Description:
Layout: H1 17-29, H2 44-56, E1 60-64, H3 67-77, E2 85-89, H4 95-102, E3 106-110, H5 120-126, E4 132-136, H6 145-155, E5 158-162, E6 170-171, E7 174-175, E8 182-186, E9 199-203, H7 206-215, H8 231-237, H9 250-261, H10 263-281, E10 288-289, E11 296-297, E12 302-306, H11 312-324, E13 330-331, H12 356-364, E14 365-369, H13 376-396
Helix pairs in contact: 1-9, 2-9, 3-4, 3-7, 7-8, 10-13, 11-13
Amino acid sequence: MTExxxxxxxxxxxxxxxxxxxxxxxxxxxRLHRYxxxxxxxxxxxxxxxxxxxxxxxxxxLAVASGGYALACALRxxxxxxxxxxxxxxxxxxxxxxxIASVGAVPVFVGVTEGLVIDLEDLKAKAEQAxxxxxxHMRGHICDMxxxxxxxxxxxxxxxxxxxxxxxxxxxxxASGRHGAMACYSTQTYKHINSGExxxxxxxxxxxxxxxxxxxxxxxxxxxxGAAPSAEVFEQVKYHTPxxxxxxxxxxxxILRPQLRSLEKQxxxxxxxxxxxxxxxxxxxGLTVVERPEGEAYVGSSIQFLLLDWTEVQIGEVLHRCAECxxxxxxxxxxxxxxxxSRYDSWRYAPSEPMPATDRILKGIxxxxxxxxxxxxxxxxxxxxxxxxISAVYQAG
Length: 397
C-alpha cells in the first residue's frame, strides 16, 4: 500500500503564550514605534538588539524591518555604489541579488559545489572583480569559512554574511555571522525565529554600524540604541548618511525576545528531524545526499538532496509522485522561477554567463522545508515516501 503524508509544509508552530503576552503589553501601551520611549526606558527593540548581540557574540546589533532590508543596508553601509560589482553565490534566493541590484550594483555570480556551498576555486578566479562578497549560507550550508576569509583577506574583499538560514549555526565553534565584516539575519515566518517579517544586522565595526543605524531611520535618536557605537562615532557619519527607513517596531521585538531564548532548543529539534530524513534517504538509488562537513554546526530547518544528471521529465515525475503522496518538494533546476525557487539566470536584471558545472548541480537540487510541526514519525514517513517514489522513477529508467 502506498503511504501518504497528511501534514502541512507551511504550518509553523504557534507563537508562545509568553510572546503573545509581551505583544499584548506593547499594544496596550500604544507605543509601537521603537523611539516612542519613556525617560530612561530602553524599549523592546533595543533589548532585543542587546540580546541578539550577546547570542551572536558581536559588539553591535541593529533590528530592522526585514532580512532583505538588512542586506541592502549592509551594502550601503559599506558604501557600495551604482556600477560597483559585488560577488555572490549563484545558488541563493532572489533577495540576495535583489539587494545588490537595489543599490545599483552588479552581481558577479560564483559557482556552487555538490556540498551546496560556494565554490572556493571559482571565488578565487573571480576575487579581483569586486571589493565585496555577499556570501549566502544558502539553505543552511556553511562552507570552509577559514579558507574563505583567508582568500578574501588576501584579495582585499570585505565579506557580508547572509545568515538567513544559519541563525544558531557555526563553523568550527565560531557562530555563523562572526567571520565577515557584517552579517544579516531574517526573522521572516519561515526562518528560525518568527515575527512575520524582520531581521538583524550585526558587526564589530563602529563606523559600519553607525552608518547602518543612521540608514535605518534613526534620525538623531541614535543614542536610544542599546547595542550601538558611541555617540562620537555617529558625529563622524551623520551628515553624510541618508535615511532609508527600515526600523523594527516594539511589537515584533516583543514577539521575538522569548523565541530567541528558546533558539538553542529549537535548533536541537530541527536537527533531530533533519537527521531522521537524512538517514532515511541515504543509499537511495540515483539520489545524492548532502553530508555535513566536520566543523559545521548546522541548523536543519530544511533538507536538500541531488538528482544529478536526471532528465527534467524524470525530476518532474518525482515531484508529481511525491506531491500525490502529500510530500511537497521544491526544485531549483526549473527554467522558470516557481514560488521562491529560481536560478541565477532567472534574474535578468543581473547579467550572467553560463556556468556549466554549476548548472549541472542546480538542475539536480531538490529542497524540502522541515517545519517543527512535523513529528519524528512524520519525518521517517516522509523519508520512506521520497525513497519509494525516487526508486520507482529511477528503476523505470
